[in-house]
Design a protein that fits this description.
Strand content of chain B: 5-15%
Strand order of the largest sheet of chain A: 3-2-4-5-7-6-12
Shape of chain A: globular
Radius of gyration of chain B: 17 Å
Largest sheet of chain A: 7 strands, mixed
Number of helices of chain B: 10
Oligomer: heterodimer
Structural class of chain A: alpha/beta
Chain lengths: ~300, ~280
């Protein structure tokens, strides 16, 4: 299975969009090589602006470009683009409903050796509460490519969560990302594994482990965390009667919370969250860290068995 | 293009009427920011009626100049100018800060015709203005200019200097900032709360074209703006010295009038004074 980082989709897709005639621009904060916006800068230097190490200015310059009619993407790392510039995202981008598309990379613990300061585990939570903000968490490179296209084609603010580490493909080239749609990527009848981002592939692997023990798991890729696909997730919960949410993010405020909210209102069933348990990250190899923080297929399968033990 | 030559007296009359509107609407709302609205009245009147190309009948006309009120709490001065220009009916002024009003406590581009972008969180407007200037053509020397009004206290926000660096680096010749230097902020004198040092020298050090003027002299404001705008490839800033609360004697130079509405008696006294100023110019309300 081929492995590619979702961040690689960023610069390449911006080039594709510009070539196709979309009035797209990008504002970066000195991380163009890491985020891959350098690819876009090389192809379209007149559409690329580097704010230097100044993330607040990056967001508001993008906002101004959007006011002037451009589709403005921003780079930087997830921790800085959301945390450092939160007021700018809230009070200018979202409050004015501007076409600013935040697509920062280096989200989650798969950042690896840079450690806790750079491993953003609260970004989905921060972005999800903002009125009008759409939150996309692509599972692989192909989903990331089309998430960027969808964000460019849809008015208003977007947050697209991209990662540093190469991850296995879940989808094929040509995958169509539908805003607000959750994808049932494997059907099952005993338990629902609702995952996003890099955890989709792990949830699929967990479904294999569970199948070996006679448990039929349904796997849903909740690629749009906001607006969440209430119907698909609730229908699956009603069908299976048990749900596990899986994310490379804090268990507070992210996909797990979004799923808990909809289950509480629409389909209360036994539920568990797999995610980082209210702690900061730490240095290490990405795979080591995924094991350290309980984000492997094995952990997902364990959580499913625990939830099933609570079902009558 | 900008009205040329300008009719200074006509703009002074508009500014005087705007001051009257500012006090009236804040009094009706029962809250708001009179001090920094009154200090900026001449600057905003000079921009809207002596400098900027704009068309109230077509707020989205592509060839318009843009205005960003970075000191968003001075929304009443912007609303007064927009009503004076005819972007919306004057009857809306009395609805300031009320539920369902076009006129929010701080500028909201989703609600108010003529407001380019929402502001209110200080320090962000100059960065937004940089983005708009980039999105237009920074190399043009006539028309399509982005004007951005900042407070002097606001310049304590670090982001203002991120934007100052950016504008010079990107050669944004179509960007003009005006600093309303009234010397006061909520907690007192800017020099005492957090001394800004020399604002002109700071902008100059970042590579901006700098001018200073009396922020209550219409001709001086228009000339200074034209002077810094005329330099191609460089952003310009006009540091305009003003009096906070200008036009209402008991509000002048008093930090306490930053963010409170006058009482009924105070309103009456203030309006009497502002009316007298209008009558002096031969205008009756």
């Amino acid at each position: 299975m081929s492995k590619r980082a979702t961040r690689e989709a960023f610069g390449a897709t911006l080039v594709e969009l510009a070539t196709a005639g979309v009035d797209v621009v990008a504002v970066e904060a000195d991380l163009s090589k890491s985020t891959t916006t350098a690819t876009f800068a090389d192809a379209y230097p007149e559409r690329f602006f580097n704010a230097g190490i100044a993330e607040q200015n990056m967001i508001n310059v993008a906002a101004g470009l959007a006011v002037a009619g451009k589709v403005a993407f921003t780079g930087s790392f997830a921790v800085f683009a959301t945390g450092r510039a939160y007021d700018q995202v809230r009070n200018t981008v979202c409050y004015s409903e501007l076409a600013v598309k935040l697509a920062p990379t280096h989200s989650g613990i798969t950042v690896g050796p840079d450690g806790g300061s750079h491993q953003m585990l609260e970004d989905i939570a921060l972005m999800r509460v903002l009125p009008g903000m759409r939150v996309l968490v692509p599972a692989d490179y192909w989903a990331a490519c089309d998430a960027i296209r969808v964000a460019a084609a849809t008015p208003g603010p977007f947050y697209i969560r991209l990662g540093r580490a190469a991850v296995p493909s879940v989808y094929d080239e040509g995958f169509r990302f539908e805003l607000g749609k959750a994808y049932v990527v494997r059907e099952g009848s005993d338990v629902t594994l609702a995952a996003c981002g890099v955890m989709v592939e792990r949830a699929l692997a967990a479904a294999d482990l569970l199948a070996d023990r006679g448990v039929s798991a349904e796997v849903i890729d909740v690629a749009t965390v906001k607006p969440i696909d209430i119907e698909t997730v609730a229908a699956s919960a009603v069908k299976t009667g048990a749900v596990v949410a899986c994310e490379e993010h804090s268990i507070i405020g992210g996909l797990g919370s979004a799923v808990a909210e909809l289950l509480g209102e629409r389909a209360p069933v036994p539920f568990a969250r797999v995610g980082v348990r209210d702690v900061f990250g730490t240095s290490g190899d990405p795979e080591e860290l995924m094991a350290h923080f309980g984000l492997t297929a094995h952990h997902v399968a364990e959580a499913a068995r625990e939830v099933l033990s609570r079902c009558g | 293009m900008s009205p040329n030559p300008i009719d200074v007296t006509a703009i002074e009359i508009r500014a005087a009427r705007m001051r009257h509107d500012i006090v009236e609407m804040i009094a009706a709302a029962g809250s708001g920011h009179p001090g920094g609205s009154l200090s900026a009245a001449d600057i905003v009147a000079a921009l809207y009626f002596g400098v900027m190309t704009h068309d109230p009948a077509h707020p989205d006309a592509p060839e318009r100049d843009r205005f960003v009120l970075s000191k968003g709490h001075a929304a009443p001065v912007l609303y007064a100018a927009l009503a004076e220009a005819g972007y919306f009916g004057r009857e809306h002024l009395a609805t300031l800060r009320r539920l369902g009003s076009l006129l929010q406590g701080h500028p909201d581009s989703k609600k108010t015709p003529g407001v380019e972008v929402s502001t209110g969180s200080l320090g962000q407007g100059l960065s937004i203005a940089c983005g708009i200037a980039l999105g237009l053509n920074p190399q043009t020397t006539d028309g399509r200019t982005v004007y951005c009004l900042l407070g002097d206290g606001e310049c304590q926000e670090g982001q203002v200097w991120e934007a100052a660096m950016f504008a010079a680096h990107e050669n944004l010749g179509n960007l003009v900032a005006i600093v309303d230097r009234n010397g006061l902020q909520i907690d007192g004198a800017c020099t005492e709360v957090m001394c800004l040092g020399e604002i002109e020298a700071k902008f100059a050090a970042f590579g901006w074209e700098v001018a200073t003027c009396d922020g209550h002299d219409i001709e001086g404001i228009v000339d200074s703006v034209a002077r810094v705008r005329a330099v191609p490839g460089r952003p310009g800033v006009v540091v305009a010295s003003t009096v906070k609360g200008r036009g209402v004697s008991f509000m002048e130079d008093e930090a306490g009038w930053h963010g409170k509405a006058p009482s009924a008696e105070e309103t009456e006294a203030a309006l009497r004074e502002l009316q007298a100023a209008l009558e002096e110019k031969g205008v009756a309300l």
